[in-house]
Amino acid sequence: MKNIIFDIGNVLLDFQPEKYLRQYFNESVMGDLMTIIFSSDEWIDLDLGHIMIQDAIQSLTLKHPHYHDEITFVLNNWTHMMVPLQKNVDLVYKLKDKGYSLYLLSNFHSEAILTMYQRYDFFKLFDGAVISADEHLVKPDERIYQKLLERYTLLPEESIFIDDMLANINAAKTLGINGIHLPYGNDLKSELEKLKII
């Protein structure tokens, strides 16, 4: 194995919107905002790079005017929930020291990924990245995995992909990429040890 490919949300950075929203809103409002924002077509369009944050704010506040201020606040500030999952980030440093090539493959908004790159130095360890908003493709579409393999001349059998969503792992496997399904909170170190990667 030569190449370790990481998803970002819930693998490298914490992404738990319910927990984040509960800091600011009661249970009822939190539930509404989870549906209105994080289950919206606009959220998918952000991942696809079809719209930017201000477009999403405009669209969602028009649809849900009674939540105008709440939607605006959440969409302008949601990246603050994305804090490093430190145990996993520590493993990134370890894998880099061992000589593995490291890559990112993630569904992520254009503005948000630039914010993450500026906020967290560990992203400099990565040799390359394929981000959904830049490609106008989202996992588990096989084409986004093919972009990564082709762009960085990676052999699938020499690569392993770590993601919290099983559908994304299964799509990688159809292309011959090895996978680690890592549900939120699971221990990445033990999974890497099982495969003798560390």
UniProtKB/TrEMBL annotation:
Domain of life (superkingdom): Bacteria
The keyword Hydrolase appears for this protein: yes
Pfam family, one: HAD_2
InterPro entries registered for this protein in UniProt: HAD-like_sf, HAD-SF_hydro_IA, HAD_2, HAD_sf, PGP-like_dom2
GO molecular function: hydrolase activity
Keywords: Hydrolase
Name of the protein: Putative hydrolase of the HAD superfamily
Lineage: Bacteria, Bacillati, Bacillota, Erysipelotrichia, Erysipelotrichales
